[in-house]
Design the sequence.
């Protein structure tokens, strides 16, 4: 059964960055966000086994499966290689996901974060591709694919070896087009050449493309005074041929409302807007920034309980706005509830799961010199 592209919404609701209160998912707000999204006529939800410490799939059950008819929404989730130790874990994790979501079946099922090394090797070793195909034959999976963070060379190998793949999810945004690690433009071209539908993740690069220096924001507002900075990033990827759905990990009602506005009566970027995007890209790339997307994969296994993405967010903000006292204030509050940058023991656990392949231990040492140095 091929994917019916006519029923796919351009905006997908990513359940990775749900609102929280006191460290727990704020289900009241999530339900309101789900209602707004569904009322807009869109219905694609993306979760994963590991999101929110394993609670995102439960949130999908409570906000979605228990409250809406099953045929009114599409649900995607993912199988994580790093949670697997044997072929039996295909079954253990999958049926745990069915129970946690209460969905009965998954409209889209992905092998999570295929990349060069362990993740790819594990999926091949444990025969995960064929296992998922069997579940598709049983009707427990409607469409099968994978999310991808590896090299273009490996992507071609995987697609050659597994023609059964129906779609691929890649990180794609205007800032990463020339990123030598992500190489998103090349990945996009490979998928387009093969006519494989694309789901986009990280369209605003973990929020980096939602908050801009004042001079850049003014440039965007001059052309589109009624549109948000975020809308430019979303419209950029949604305008690309072959993009089936753009995921946004919305964290509050206002983000949901803004994104719905962007995709209601959607307008692709005009040529002069693309030229502005190119200008903005050059300006942003000239600013030294840590390329963290706040996926938080690094946090669960950190033995020192450091909120690594928030440390990097503090450093990035300081680099853009060195005189803004609020960054140091934010960090002071952060270390009241999590480890300091200087607590890092360089164990490397975080680097083994980072989709951006950041040298986190080195960056944490640099962050500690800036954030944890004694006051003079």
Sequence:
């Amino acid at each position: 059964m091929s994917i019916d592209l006519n029923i796919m919404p351009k905006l997908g609701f990513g359940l990775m960055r749900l609102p929280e209160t006191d460290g727990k998912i704020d289900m009241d707000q999530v339900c309101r966000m789900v209602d707004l999204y569904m009322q807009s006529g869109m219905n694609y939800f993306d979760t994963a086994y590991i999101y929110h410490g394993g609670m995102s799939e439960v949130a999908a059950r409570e906000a979605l499966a228990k409250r809406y008819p099953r045929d009114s929404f599409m649900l995607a989730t993912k199988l994580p290689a790093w949670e697997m130790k044997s072929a039996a874990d295909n079954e253990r994790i999958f049926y745990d996901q069915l129970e946690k979501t209460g969905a009965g079946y998954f409209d889209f099922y992905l092998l999570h974060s295929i990349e060069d090394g362990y993740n790819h090797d594990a999926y091949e070793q444990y025969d995960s591709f064929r296992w998922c195909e069997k579940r598709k034959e049983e009707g427990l999976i409607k469409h099968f694919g994978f999310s991808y963070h590896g090299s273009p060379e490996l992507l071609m190998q995987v697609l050659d070896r597994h023609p059964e793949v129906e779609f691929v999810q890649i990180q794609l945004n205007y800032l990463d087009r020339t990123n030598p690690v992500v190489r998103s433009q090349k990945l996009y071209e490979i998928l387009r050449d093969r006519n494989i539908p694309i789901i986009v993740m990280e369209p605003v690069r973990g929020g980096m493309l939602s908050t801009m220096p004042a001079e850049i924001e003014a440039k965007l507002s001059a052309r589109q005074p009624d549109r948000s900075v975020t809308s430019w990033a979303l419209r950029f990827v949604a305008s690309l041929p072959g993009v089936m759905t753009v995921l946004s990990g919305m964290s509050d009602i206002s983000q949901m409302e803004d994104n719905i506005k962007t995709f209601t009566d959607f307008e692709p970027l005009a040529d002069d807007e693309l030229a502005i995007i190119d200008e903005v890209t050059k300006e942003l790339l000239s600013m030294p920034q840590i390329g963290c997307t706040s996926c938080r994969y690094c946090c669960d296994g950190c033995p020192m309980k450091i909120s690594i993405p928030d440390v990097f967010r503090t450093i990035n903000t300081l680099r853009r706005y060195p005189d803004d006292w609020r960054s140091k204030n934010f960090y002071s509050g952060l270390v009241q509830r999590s480890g300091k940058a200087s607590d890092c023991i360089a164990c490397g656990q975080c680097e083994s799961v980072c989709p951006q392949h950041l040298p986190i231990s080195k960056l944490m040492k640099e962050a500690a010199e800036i954030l944890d140095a004694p006051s003079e």
